[in-house]
Protein 1
Amino acid sequence: GQQVMQIPQYQHVQEGEDFTTYCNSSTTLSNIQWYKQRPGGHPVFLIQLVKSGEVKKQKRLTFQFGEAKKNSSLHITATQTTDVGTYFCAGPRGNKLVFGAGTILRVKS
Amino acid sequence: DVKVTQSSRYLVKRTGEKVFLECVQDMDHENMFWYRQDPGLGLRLIYFSYDVKMKEKGDIPEGYSVSREKKERFSLILESASTNQTSMYLCASSLTDTSTDTQYFGPGTRLTVL
């Protein structure tokens, strides 16, 4: 069935560096959601993208939905230690929401 | 704010025991979900429910069952716990659409089966 693939699995950056995680689907998605899970915490919804080519920003976070609605990215500018955690993308498959495996972000201060 | 609570943060059980994980949401959401989270595998859906007494299998239902007798409560049952069910279990709820609505997660239950 349709899967949501996420890369990289893990990234360790110096504080102040940028970070990007990518999400790819084998099929067209009607929408995509992004969640963040802090260490020891639970996933928390960040944003949903619906339109082809959509770009949304939340402070230092920029979310993009591809033109073909098969891929998405989350870019963090000038990472801070508060950005650490696991970032998940999720897309619909039938009547379910399918999550990617997540990208673990670690930030060295 | 939506609040999703789970009965235990940590649980230790023995192989063969029957295990109940409880989840309660306070926002009158139609849908509730049970996931397990394992390193490198992300969140995998075990079961979900779209209405009271209605349930549907997720991607990994084997070894689990669920119960939803009241709208606010969704229980995950391990009939005979096995060591490969050691994991973090996350409950979630969403308003009406099971595939597109935002999901709100509980704090999780870390289950260890010895």
Protein 2
Amino acid sequence: QKEVEQDPGPLSVPEGAIVSLNCTYSNSAFQYFMWYRQYSRKGPELLMYTYSSGNKEDGRFTAQVDKSSKYISLFIRDSQPSDSATYLCAMSWNNDMRFGAGTRLTVKP
Amino acid sequence: EAQVTQNPRYLITVTGKKLTVTCSQNMNHEYMSWYRQDPGLGLRQIYYSMNVEVTDKGDVPEGYKVSRKEKRNFPLILESPSPNQTSLYFCASSFAQGLGGYTFGSGTRLTVV
């Protein structure tokens, strides 16, 4: 079993849809949770950064962490074609960071 | 602009020919790391450095070397590349390991034939 599991997709949605991206993990020690966005031929860029359980909102993006279920989510409201990218979840603990394999998202106009 | 700069962006080489991929950051970050990204496997850490002259192995260090002689630079060295090292490589930096999220470079696509 991988330490971090992420559905690779691909996921295709129409413009304006609400997108839900998810990761599960096995190590209950993880304390910091992140989402990165990676456009084609680019490096990952940090999108959301949260500590422990709860929600964090930034514009159209909401990150949710449920440590009891070892489950994290990223919601994108009013999705735009410019949101088309691969989204990577990541989590860290005690100087160790682990990444999911990424979910490829396409938002169609 | 705060950034991590990698060079080259694309590289095709032959088996056994030594190569170096450079990485430089301008954010005065203590921590730097190298990852490779392969389809279905995600990002896997090769080597990391907590500070100048301090380096350590990640999850997949075989066939790679690194050095950290200056805070801003962290080159990745492949002394005898093999085809299984064909991959997309990323350098990343952060003010501390595992905290605050990483800033990534734009990547180096390496093909070893």
